[in-house]
């Protein structure tokens, strides 16, 4: 039987970068699918997942730099894929990597990643994914052991394999992302990626040359010590999912465990940061 969903329509002023921030925060709050149109952002949540405090966790609604209005109505389940297909355009990063859907033309870039995200995060359109792709393109992953923590669609793990990593673990706490990553990994003929549903508690006795984690500030601050305990000497830690203002906190946390800051990338207030062990 079809599920009942709540369809929220948000208008954010200013829309740039407000819509992107809103979509990221709604994703963390449990919303499942997003469509941007001329009215703003339309977001869907299952009625039985909704609780009165669900919007309390969406910081942008309380942030005085933005004006956020919304309305909502109940609807029956939709064909999310059809909505998504209308809105998903291929994205090219640094002339080297294209992230696209199966129905887009094959690109001429060195790396071609085919993603059907459905309701998972990680199409390359978000600033944080884009910058993590840039970092992966700049680092030599040949023969490396890689962890993609918070893998979403699996886009970063897939790129890591295409760049020559030979042993990749991809972990996501969300059941839907786990299933979607497995599908996308098969779709891209990857053979060296293992996907797990879970969190940093799965990392006992593991070791990696490169750890990628695009999650959010609070989870990173909590889990950074666990990631570092799995990082080989000279290993690289690439983090994103937070704003420029959060860099000092993230840097302090990593430096407490003797990691060295190398550089950060920045796009529309979002950042990605590289550390070395
Ligand atoms: C911002 S998305 C990143 C997706 C993809 N890696 C990318 O770069 O586009 C963050 C992902 O982390 C997952 N996540 C959230 N908390 C987590 C945790 N504690 N451990 C593992 N994954 C987590 C979410 O389900 C979500 O798929």
From TrEMBL:
Reported EC number(s) for this entry are 2.1.1.-
Q: Does the keyword Nucleotide-binding apply?
A: no
The terms under GO molecular function for this entry are: methyltransferase activity
Q: Which Pfam families match?
A: PrmA
Please name the GO terms of the biological process aspect recorded for this protein, alphabetically. methylation
Catalysed conversion reaction: L-lysyl-[protein] + 3 S-adenosyl-L-methionine = N(6),N(6),N(6)-trimethyl-L-lysyl-[protein] + 3 S-adenosyl-L-homocysteine + 3 H(+)
Q: GO cellular component terms?
A: ribosome
Tell me the protein's name: Ribosomal protein L11 methyltransferase
Instruction: Write out the residues that bind S-adenosyl-L-methionine.
Output: 129, 150, 172, 214
Q: Which InterPro entries match?
A: Ribosomal_L11_MeTrfase_PrmA (IPR050078), Ribosomal_PrmA_MeTrfase (IPR004498), SAM-dependent_MTases_sf (IPR029063)
Query: What task does this protein carry out?
Result: Methylates ribosomal protein L11.
Compartments where located: Cytoplasm
Organism, scientific name: Galbibacter pacificus
Q: Which SUPFAM superfamilies match?
A: S-adenosyl-L-methionine-dependent methyltransferases
Q: Where are the transmembrane segments?
A: none
């Amino acid at each position: 039987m079809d599920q009942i969903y709540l369809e929220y329509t948000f208008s954010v002023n200013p829309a740039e970068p407000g819509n992107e921030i809103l979509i990221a925060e709604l994703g963390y709050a449990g919303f499942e699918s997003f469509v941007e149109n001329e009215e703003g952002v339309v977001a869907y949540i299952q009625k039985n997942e909704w609780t009165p405090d669900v919007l309390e966790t969406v910081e942008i609604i309380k942030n005085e730099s933005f004006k956020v209005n919304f309305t909502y109505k109940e609807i029956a389940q939709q064909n999310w894929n059809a909505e998504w297909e209308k809105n998903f355009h291929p994205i090219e990063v640094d002339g080297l990597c294209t992230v696209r859907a199966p129905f887009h033309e094959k690109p001429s870039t060195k790396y071609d990643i085919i993603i059907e995200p459905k309701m998972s995060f990680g199409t390359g359109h978000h600033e944080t994914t884009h910058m993590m792709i840039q970092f992966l393109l700049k680092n030599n992953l040949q023969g490396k052991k890689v962890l993609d923590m918070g893998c979403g669609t699996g886009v970063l793990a897939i790129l890591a394999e295409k760049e020559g990593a030979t042993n990749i673990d991809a972990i996501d706490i969300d059941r839907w992302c786990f299933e979607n990553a497995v599908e996308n990994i098969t779709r891209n003929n990857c053979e060296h990626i293992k996907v797990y549903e879970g969190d940093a508690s799965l990392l006992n006795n593991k070791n990696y040359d490169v750890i990628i984690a695009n999650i959010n500030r609070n989870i990173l601050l909590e889990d950074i010590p666990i990631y570092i305990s799995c990082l080989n000497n000279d290993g690289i830690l690439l983090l994103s999912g937070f704003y420029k203002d959060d860099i000092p906190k993230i840097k302090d946390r990593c430096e407490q465990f003797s990691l060295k800051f190398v550089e950060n990338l920045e796009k529309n207030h979002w950042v990605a940061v590289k550390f070395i062990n």
